[in-house]
Each structure stands twice: as structure tokens, then as C-alpha cells.
Design goal:
6-stranded mixed beta sheet, 155 residues, alpha/beta
Length: 155
């Protein structure tokens, strides 16, 4: 993810992601569908509820999964994910998914009068992501999601 200009901060699981979300704003959230404890769908549901209680827009989220049959992808999108990235992870697909989230973030800001375009200041908030992305493929280390920040100058 360094090639995408991403700065990483690791959190333990979905519960830790919720704790972090309470105190920080995020441009996007990458969630492993098969996370231990709260899975990716449960974590997104909890993050969306938390966002509503904090009067924030729902998080733009990317599902990271090996389950990418058409009906599964449609189900994830129906649950509120912005994009789906298949395992093993290909960096160009992850990059496209993040840009899709950032475009939606900029569109949401424009609707509420903030006027933030994707090319300018689109990377000013962190991105939450499962730890397996940084490790490559579908290997899962003991525990962990991570929070990242994108750098617009690293393309």
C-alpha cells in the first residue's frame, strides 16, 4: 500500500475500528468479509449506525473477500459497500476501489456545499483497512485491521 501513498496504523479488530471511528474521520473503510469476531458486513453495519449517531455520512466501504461470485458481490453492494476487491488482492484493483470511495466522498461533500473535488484534498482523512491487504494475498495475520492515510502526491 505504500505504492499508493498509504500511511498505516494497525487496530485489532472490528470493535477497535469502531472505537477509532468515534474519534476520527475516514475517507474510506476496507473490511475483510471474513474477519474474526465481527465480520466485515457486521462491522460496516455497526460503523453506519455509529456514523448516523454522530451525524456523519455513512462510511464508504470496500469489501475484501474471496467470495466474488456475482450474487455475492451484489449482496455486499446491497449491504452498503461501495466496492468489492477480490482475494488475492491485486494492487490495481485495490487502488480503483479506493478511488471509487474517494469520488463518492467528494460527491457527498459537494452535495453539502464543501466543494471538495477528488483531485484536491481527497486524501485528508484516513482509510480503514484489514491488515491482510498490507501482507498481500489472502494471508491473515493474528488479529488486525489497519487505518491508513492516502497521499495524493504518490501516484
Amino acid at each position: 500500500l505504500q505504492a499508493l501513498g498509504v500511511e498505516t496504523v494497525i487496530v485489532a479488530d472490528g470493535e477497535a475500528a469502531l472505537d477509532r471511528y468515534r474519534s476520527e474521520r475516514f475517507d474510506a473503510v476496507l473490511l475483510d468479509i471474513a474477519m474474526p469476531g465481527m465480520d466485515g458486513v457486521q462491522t460496516l453495519e455497526a460503523l453506519s449506525g455509529l456514523a448516523a449517531s454522530l451525524h456523519r455520512p455513512p462510511p464508504r466501504a470496500v469489501a475484501v473477500t474471496a467470495n466474488v461470485m456475482t450474487h455475492q458481490v451484489e449482496e455486499y453492494l446491497g449491504c452498503g459497500f461501495t466496492a468489492v476487491v477480490a482475494k488475492p488482492i491485486r494492487m490495481e484493483m485495490l487502488g480503483q476501489a479506493l478511488w471509487q470511495c474517494l469520488d463518492r466522498s467528494a460527491q457527498a461533500d459537494a452535495r453539502v456545499g464543501r466543494g471538495r473535488a477528488p483531485a484536491e484534498n481527497a486524501f485528508d482523512r484516513p482509510v480503514a483497512c484489514p491488515h491482510c491487504c498490507a501482507r498481500g494475498g489472502n494471508r491473515r495475520p493474528k488479529g488486525g485491521n489497519m487505518v491508513e492515510r492516502l497521499d495524493p502526491t504518490a501516484r
